Structures are given as structure tokens and as C-alpha cells.
TrEMBL record:
InterPro entries: Glomulin/ALF4, YAP-bd/ALF4/Glomulin. This is Glomulin. It comes from Silurus meridionalis. GO terms for molecular function: ubiquitin-protein transferase inhibitor activity. One of its GO terms (cellular component) is cytoplasm.
Length: 589
């Protein structure tokens, strides 16, 4: 039945003038042809489509057979495979290129997720052949094809380990390698146009579409891929794809240096750049910076010898963008990029003026978020290491300004404690012969000390919540009283001691006594409740401390928490008592 229908519709359409076929003709051709192919009658369909008398019919309608043909080619059914391959090849030669592109892309779009790799590796070469037939009119169609292909590739999982990449368990590597080969003739055409006209046309549609593809590839999948170093994986398809993308970007006339510094140029209001946010997405530029500075990919195409400070300025917004994300890999890449950029900078060299730039204040806040909120311990630890590295690169005045800013904005006791420890180190350095400076001694130091030696809510400050900051503050004060002689008073601490005692030590002592009394009462109450409970495995209950309800705990856990708090108060008390002892002793001499 299907064989007869297929032959009949083709014969009938032979006599239609000007290829003015009706929608019904198309429907019958598609349905009958599909049935023939599905039923294994590929030989009959082949004989019909290659018949010269049917050339005009096949040219107009043949692309409707792509769906059943592709299914056979994917399944590789031996019985029908050879004939279907011949039909497929013939259609590529005679059918309208534009309709073929649409038909091929429909197959890519509609494929099941578990067959994405197979469909892309099967159809990329035919798709390339058809697109090249479009001549000068292919730019927009190429863009449509690349969008479709990338959207399907994005569905594939990314290899996480060396073994997964080597075995290509998800098929992503095969797809990316095929995509690299797919765009090469179009890149070569762009290069020839540049060579022919001795200029780079930013409005060249073909160039624009290839650039869009490269920018999208930098974002996805490359920003989601953790590339392996050549030392650990000599041959890496993912690394090769990243290299191909950067080489392509450069070969079509884009300067990697200009792309890296795109954010700086935008701020200077260079004409035309504000309109190109879509052309140069921020995520793509951040990925490019990471590939250049962390993996040194295509570094030979980066001829400019950048000053370390300029490179840092270029990368700060890229770092900030990556650190503002929640995905662990993005955070790691942000930390890697920041670290690799910072290590090139000489210690104690960054000037204070840089802190007037928004990105140089935003990135530390992003680092604080990473250090305090990221669930991954290794990322938090790395964040702290990079945070310290960034501090080390500022000169003395910049460190001073940075510390004051962070104490004002960090709003995290642990971070504030870390900053105070750095302040102590800078004071210690300034007190050594040959390292004196105006910022961590004398009149400039005192405002910083007042900022450090303060309680946010006076005696009612939550001492446990602010434990890290308070302990580091007390350690700093103890250090100053021991290290700085009263008669020399280089830091000015002895001139300020009375004010410190009144505004910091007394409120702290009051708060400590109040907190200790409260927790001792809670401890006594909890012990009393436990003594009245005969069953040692008492049910979990809640404890409210300072208007905060602790999570459900067993009585034993409650006791441990309360005893731990009292231990912390003892620790604070011992340092406070030592400070009072030193102060009293110095006052008597």
C-alpha cells in the first residue's frame, strides 16, 4: 500500500507545472515515504528519488524524508542501512539547502536526550555541507544552527574526573570535537575576507555569528568544566576545545587583550562598547580570563606584556562575577583567577588609589561570603588563603584603609578577628627598626584602635557571637601594652589607655559578668532538671539562651553547650585580667 502511494504521488507530481505542489501532495509524499522506509523498502524509495524524471519533485519534497532516514541511520539497521545512506546522500545533493538545514535541525531538536551525542556526530558533517551551499546567504542560518547545536550539547553532563573525560562517558567530548571541525570552513572564510579587504568588519554577519558561538561556548560548557593540567592529562578533548575557541576568537580579528580589558574600556565610555553587552557576555569574558591566566591556554596569542597591576584591574570584575555565584565550580574558578593574578603582583606594592575602584571593595565582600557561607570546607579554606594573599599585596597606606573598611562592612566576627590579627602583624612590623611608618604607629593608628576596641552593643553585646573579634582585640591590646614601652609610646596606646578602659574594658567586664551569671543560672537549672529525671535517656528538649532557642538537644548536649560557653568566658576573663594586671603594674612605675 505504502509503495503504491509513494510511487503514485511522485508520478502525479511529475506533471505539476512550476513545482506548484499542494499541501496534500506533501502530506502523502511524507507519509508514504516514511512508511516505505520504516517497513524496510529503502531500495524502492532509492530507485524513485534517483530517477531523473523525479528530480524536481525530490528537490522540493525530498527533505520530508529526513526524519525516517535519520532514525534508520541512528539505529544502523543493516538490512536497510545501505539504501538509506544512499537516499540521504542523494537528498543532500539535490534538495533545497535551506529546507535541508531546517529538516536536519528539526532532527537535532527533537532527538531524545540519550541520543544527543549520536545525532550530533551523525548530522554535523551533512549540516556543514548544506550550509556551505548557501553561499553569502548562510550567516543567519549558520547562527540558527549553532544555537540549536549548543542548546543540545548543553544537556550533556560534564565529565568530573580524568577517567570520565578519557572514556567520554557522557559523549560531550565527541560533540565538542565535532563542533570544532564543523566551524572551521566558516572561520577560514572569515579569515579570507579579512585578508582580502585588509580590514576587520565588525558588522560582517558571518563573523558575528561565529563570535556569538565562541562567546556562548566560553560560558557553556567551558565555564562548567574543570580542565585538567597537561601534566596530569596529556591529551584532553576539553582542553583542545577551549584552545580551539580562543584560537578562533583571535583568528576572526578579536584581540584577546581587548576582550580581557573590556570592562575597563566600557567604563571609559569607548564609543560602541555599551551596545555590545550581548556580543560580549560577562560570563564569557570571565571564562576567557580564567583560561588565559589559570590554564595559560592560547597564551602565545596574547602578545602584550601586561603590568601585573593592570592585569589585576582587568580581572577584578571577572573575579567578582565568579565569586558572586553559588555554584562551587564557579567559586573555585573565581578564587583560582584571583590567586593567579595576585601572585604576579609584588608584595606591599598596590597603591591606596585602587580601593577607590568599586571592584576592589566588592571582591573582598564576595570573599567574605565565600569564607563564611560556602558549604565546601576546601573552598572556604582556599578563600581565606586568597583573602590573606590579597591583603599582602597592598602597600601600608592601602592596608590601613582596607582594614578600616572591612571592620566597618564585614559584619562577621570571624572575619573581623582575622582583620584584627593582620592589624597586630602590621603594628609588630612597624615597631621593628627600619620598618617604621605613619599608618600603624601614632596618630593614624589610634582611630583604627578605637574601631577595633569597641563593643557593637556595649555591655549587652553577644559575647559568644562576637568571640573571635573580642579575643583578637584583647590579644592585640595585651600585645601593645607589653611590646610598646610606656616611655616611648610609639603606638600611642598609653595616651589612649584611660579612654580604652572606660569605653571598652569596663563595658566588656560588665557584659562578661552578666553573661557568666546568665549561663551559670541556665547550667544550674538544666542540672536540676536532669537530676529529677530518672531515665538517663531523657527525651530531647530545647534551651533558650539570650532570646535564641537552641535546636532540640538531649540534656547531656545542653550541659556540654553551656559548659563550653562558660569555658569561653573563662578564657576571655583570663586575657582581660592579664591586661588589667599589666595596666596596673605600668601605672605604678
Amino acid at each position: 500500500m505504502a509503495l503504491e502511494q509513494f510511487s503514485d504521488v511522485v508520478q502525479r507530481c511529475q506533471h505539476v507545472e512550476d513545482e506548484n505542489f499542494s499541501p496534500a501532495d506533501f502530506d502523502v509524499f511524507r507519509a508514504a515515504g516514511t512508511s516505505c522506509i520504516e517497513q524496510g523498502h529503502g531500495a524502492h524509495v532509492l530507485s524513485v528519488v534517483i530517477d531523473e524524471k523525479n528530480k524536481s519533485v525530490v528537490r522540493c519534497m525530498g527533505w520530508n524524508l529526513l526524519e525516517p532516514l535519520v532514525k534508520v541511520l541512528l539505529k544502523k539497521e543493516e538490512k536497510n542501512l545501505q539504501h538509506c545512506q544512499a537516499i540521504f546522500s542523494h537528498l543532500l545533493q539535490v534538495c533545497s539547502p535551506k529546507e535541508l538545514v531546517i529538516g536536519l535541525l528539526e532532527q537535532v531538536e527533537e532527538v531524545d536526550s540519550d541520543a544527543v551525542t549520536e545525532i550530533i556526530t551523525l548530522l554535523l558533517s551533512p549540516l556543514q555541507t548544506v550550509l556551505l551551499k548557501l553561499g553569502k546567504r548562510k550567516a543567519s542560518t549558520l547562527g540558527m544552527a549553532l544555537n540549536t547545536l549548543l542548546s543540545q550539547v548543553a544537556k550533556l553532563p560534564v565529565p568530573k574526573s580524568r577517567e570520565q573525560e578519557e572514556d567520554d562517558v557522557f559523549g560531550l567530548c565527541r560533540c565538542l570535537t565535532a563542533l570544532s571541525h564543523f566551524i572551521r570552513p566558516f572561520v577560514e572564510e572569515i579569515k579570507e575576507n579579512i585578508k582580502k579587504h585588509c580590514t576587520i568588519s565588525r558588522d560582517d554577519e558571518l563573523r558575528v555569528e561565529v563570535l556569538k558561538f565562541c562567546m556562548k561556548s566560553l560560558n557553556e560548557p567551558l565555564l562548567d568544566v574543570q580542565l585538567k593540567d597537561p601534566d596530569t592529562m596529556e591529551t584532553s578533548p576539553l582542553r583542545d576545545f577551549a584552545t580551539d575557541i580562543l584560537v578562533t576568537v583571535s583568528s576572526i580579528g578579536e584581540s584577546l587583550l581587548d576582550l580581557l580589558s573590556h570592562n575597563l574600556l566600557r567604563k571609559r565610555n569607548i564609543p560602541g562598547l555599551l551596545e555590545e553587552e550581548v556580543r560580549y557576555p560577562k560570563e564569557s569574558l570571565a571564562s576567557l580570563a580564567h583560561l588565559l591566566f589559570v590554564h595559560h591556554i592560547a597564551v602565545d596569542l596574547f602578545p602584550a606584556v601586561l603590568s601585573p597591576v593592570f592585569a589585576l584591574q582587568c580581572n577584578m570584575e571577572h573575579v567578582g562575577l565568579l565569586l558572586s555565584r553559588n555554584e562551587e565550580l564557579r567559586l573555585k574558578k573565581g578564587l583560582e583567577l584571583y590567586e593567579k593574578t595576585l601572585v604576579r603582583v609584588e608584595d606591599s606594592s598596590l597603591p591606596c588609589d585602587l580601593l577607590d575602584l568599586k571592584s576592589f571593595l566588592d571582591v573582598p565582600q564576595d570573599l567574605v561570603r565565600v569564607m563564611t557561607l560556602c558549604p565546601a570546607q576546601d573552598v572556604r579554606t582556599k578563600g581565606l588563603s586568597v583573602f590573606q594573599l590579597s591583603i599582602d599585596k597592598y602597600n601600608t597606606e592601602a592596608k590601613y584603609k582596607f582594614f578600616r573598611c572591612m571592620l566597618k562592612t564585614s559584619d562577621h566576627a570571624g572575619v573581623e578577628g582575622f582583620i584584627i590579627k593582620n592589624i597586630k602583624n602590621q603594628i609588630d612590623l612597624a615597631l621593628k627598626p627600619g620598618h617604621e611608618n605613619d599608618w600603624f604607629l601614632g596618630k593614624h593608628l589610634l582611630p583604627l584602635l578605637r574601631q577595633v576596641l569597641s563593643l557593637p552593643q556595649g555591655p549587652e553585646t553577644d559575647l559568644l557571637h562576637n568571640l573571635d573579634r573580642i579575643m583578637e582585640s584583647l590579644n592585640l591590646l595585651r600585645y601593645l601594652l607589653i611590646r610598646d614601652k610606656e616611655w616611648s609610646n610609639e603606638t600611642g596606646i598609653w595616651s589612649e589607655l584611660c579612654a580604652i578602659e572606660e569605653n571598652y574594658l569596663k563595658p566588656l567586664r560588665t557584659g562578661l559578668n552578666m553573661s557568666r551569671a546568665h549561663y551559670e543560672a541556665e547550667l544550674k537549672s538544666t542540672k536540676g532538671k536532669n537530676n529529677t529525671t530518672a531515665d538517663s535517656k531523657a527525651p530531647a528538649c530545647t534551651v533558650t539562651v539570650g532570646n535564641n532557642t537552641l535546636p532540640d538537644m538531649t540534656p547531656e548536649m545542653q550541659l556540654q553547650v553551656l559548659q563550653s560557653a562558660l569555658y569561653m568566658f573563662d578564657l576571655m576573663e583570663s586575657v582581660l585580667a592579664r591586661i588589667e594586671e599589666i595596666s596596673a603594674a605600668k601605672g605604678q612605675t
